[in-house]
Amino acid sequence: MKFRARTLLWIVNKFRFKNKVEKAAIYGLTGQDYNHKTRQGFPREASWCQRWVRCVLFLAFGNRHADLMRRSARETALEVAKSQYALRPFERDEPGDVWWWLEGPGRDGHAAIRVGSEGLAQNTERGNDSGDARVILRISEMRPPDVRARFS
Fold first, then answer.
1. How many folded domains does the chain comprise?
2. Spatial contact of 28 and 121, defined as CB atoms under 8 Å apart
3. What is the C-alpha to C-alpha distance for residues 94 and 8, in angstroms, rounded to an integer?
4. What domain range includes position 53?
């Protein structure tokens, strides 16, 4: 995990991300929270995907979008779908967009953040080999999201 975290931090510092959310998501995968304290992984439990997305958005924007965040990904998706940040079906996806699914582990839905051209950074029950639940999966491994949003 230390090598992985160091590599991701190098990526964050080396490249200039155009999107604050994408940069915060990559930084969030390193295991550091918004207080720069190392967190020993996120549990593989329902609703932790939403908690991780909330931490990433807080890292990027502070409390600006806190009023939209709810306990579960499903509840948040329904709230965001009514907001000005929701993307319409014809709008193209970009790195930094947040995706929500109404159905997911534990019936709480699921949340992830688009990174790069083909990745989704997320906290998922699938996790990685080290036991940490934070991973980047290919977009092709996921079904299309029910709600997409672009925060600024």
1. 1
2. yes
3. 20
4. 2-149
CA dihedral 48, 3, 23, 57 (to 10 degrees): 20
Alpha helices in the chain (DSSP H): 2-14, 20-29, 48-61, 73-81
Q: Beta strands of 5-104 (E only): which ranges?
A: 98-101
Q: What is the pLDDT of residues 72-130, one digit of tens each?
A: 899 999 999 999 999 988 889 899 999 999 987 667 888 999 988 888 888 776 555 55
Angstrom distance (rounded) from CA 21 to CA 29: 12
Identify the sign of the CA torsion 88, 79, 94, 66: positive
Q: In this structure, what CATH number is given to the domain that contains residue 104?
A: 3.90.1720.10
Q: How far apart are CA 57 and CA 117, in angstroms?
A: 20
Q: Residue 145 in 3-state DSSP?
A: coil
Q: Which amino acid is at 3?
A: F
What is the distance between the alpha carbons of residues 38 and 89, in angstroms, rounded to a whole number? 38
> Between vectors from CA 80 to CA 78 and to CA 82, what angle results, nearest 5°?
80
